[in-house]
Amino acid sequence: MASEVVLTNKIFLNAVLPLVKVIANDVPNLAKKFEGMNAVFQVSALDPNVEGGKVATYFEVVDGEWTVKNDQVAENPDVDLEFKTLEAMNGFFKGKIGPATLPKMKGAIKKTKVFMALLMTLLKMSSLLTAKAAPEKEEDKVLMVKCFFYLLSAGISQLNKQGHEAIHEWTSKSPDRVYAWAVDGHPEVSAYLRIKAGKSRSGRGVYKRAMPFFTMRFDTLDSALGILLSTDDMLESTKKGKLIMDGAPEFGAQIGEYMLTVAAYAQ
Asked: Do strands 191-196 and 177-183 pair parallel, antiparallel, or not at all (unpaired)?
């Protein structure tokens, strides 16, 4: 099993940072800033324990179209937010912002427009993931639920791939099964996790190849946010029909436990 520092960092590199693309595409005023843009920007951290001494996730934007390169280092990014250690990156994204956690901003002088667009998107992502209450606007609720579902499915998969003891034990004993998250009337926010014999793969959208083995389904966006933001009790939500377990209840409790595990690393 990887160290707690590495597990946390993999969550940020491979589950949190990919949400930048979602936010940049779904928020109109941010999407406009990337129209016609051609740039490569990345978020990185120095790590003497890996080949090349650096870990990163970077983004290629070609004519405004995004490609995410998870856990890969770009050769010559236009903008690079480089943290001096994994601990510094982890602390920064957990909200511990100060001299010890601030990154170096490389290339920002040459590509000010790119840097500002990236910074605004990162700030929007941070505000969504650290919110304590549901937003008022419908479009903001959709975006928040979508980001949380994507984070949870990718986060559980990443912890499995890094050898998290409890999660890897669960996947290693599992036949081919798909677990899903959904909200009635909002297929655009759906996400899923496929596991089999120790392997896992997260996905965005509705799983269409077969009916999922288990789905954690909510009747409304507000009901989903009540659980995601920990303002509602899961048992009470189930009793009131706000949370529907499409499958055996024990699997809901299990998935709920792993959701909390991901949240603990990401917050």
From this structure: antiparallel
